[in-house]
Amino acid sequence: MNAVLEPVAVSPTRLRITEIFLSLQGEARDAGWPTVFVRLTGCPLRCTYCDTAYAFHGGEWQEIDDILATVRGHGVRHVCVTGGEPLAQKRCVQLLGKLCDAGYVVSLETSGAIDIADVDTRVSRIVDIKTPGSGEVERNLWSNMALLTPNDQVKFVICSREDFDWAADIVRTQNLAEKCDVLFSPSYAQIAPADLAQWIIDARLPVKFQMQLHKALWGEAQGR
């Protein structure tokens, strides 16, 4: 009689990882700091301007303790967990908590389409609110706005003047500038950065203009 093979149980402490690498943080509050990036595999969104489609599939399963060991080996204080959409993997919350416990300055880049309630508040949650130009505006989970703290950040990637006007209205109606830092970024190669900068100035909008430092330094190079 042939033996019945039991299905292999998935470890409760594993995550599918696309890459872990050391670079400079190119965006948000900690821009310029040497940072270890932990890029998780998978994303349920398909934004028109996505520059990390290679993280949608593939990757390798890694134990959380092994991920922590790799991070520790790079020898820097700042860690950014990103994707894809990292919160699409439920164990991401566990990883974030352990990184905080280990004393790192931790940030999370998330689309804003998934509930952030379970994310450790020691983490700076960078919530990317999707504009109409992203093609994913209907995926925004507006209940996340009530969960924001001064440690968090909100980002809008602006693809057009229409996107700017839409985002400015959200900033005002949601009182975002009173809750946390608000960041406006020009969509790479879609609008001129100087145009976005001038729109912000003209509107006296209480937001921070930012560009992607890593792209200015290394272009579209993966793992930078």
UniProtKB/TrEMBL annotation:
- Kindly give the InterPro entries that the UniProt entry links to this protein: 7-CO-7-deazaguanine_synth-like, Aldolase_TIM, rSAM, rSAM_QueE_gams, rSAM_sf
Q: In which pathway does it act?
A: Purine metabolism; 7-cyano-7-deazaguanine biosynthesis
EC number per UniProt: 4.3.99.3
Q: Where does [4Fe-4S] cluster bind?
A: C43, C47, C50
Extract the Pfam families matched here.
Radical_SAM (PF04055)
Q: Which residues of this UniProt protein bind substrate? A: L24, Q25, G26, R39, T82
Catalysis: reaction(s) = 6-carboxy-5,6,7,8-tetrahydropterin + H(+) = 7-carboxy-7-carbaguanine + NH4(+)
Question: What does the protein in this record do?
Answer: Catalyzes the complex heterocyclic radical-mediated conversion of 6-carboxy-5,6,7,8-tetrahydropterin (CPH4) to 7-carboxy-7-deazaguanine (CDG), a step common to the biosynthetic pathways of all 7-deazapurine-containing compounds.
Q: What is the protein named? A: 7-carboxy-7-deazaguanine synthase
What organism is the protein native to?
Lysobacter soyae
Which gene holds the coding sequence for this protein? Answer: queE
